[in-house]
Amino acid sequence: MALDKTFLEERRQHLLKLIARYERLSRGEEASDGFTPEARRFRIECSLPAARAALERLESGEYGVCIICGDDIPIERLMATSTAVRCVFCQERHERETPVLSPERWTPAWTQE
Ligand SMILES: [Zn+2]
Predict the structure, then answer these.
(1) pTM of the prediction?
(2) Domains in the chain, ordered, with CATH?
């Protein structure tokens, strides 16, 4: 799928902002964000790597393609969850198999800021 250049650039900027914020969080520079300690730890240990991985895929031109089945990830999903690297079907299966390591369960409200 050829994603629109403007869309990709917008997602890139969004991911860069997310990564910068997660990095500040991991350095303890962003203190008053209202997260519980668990949610904070989750961002640092799961969401930060997920955001970096999504950015890498964006740079290599693989953004928007499911890492498991190779299907296109719907744009609506990429809009809602910029770090999505799986289609909905594969994500659901992934969450069933690894319930703790599923950043998308935690992130939507936050990533849309
Ligand atoms: Zn898939």
Answers:
(1) 0.77
(2) 5-111 (1.20.120.910)
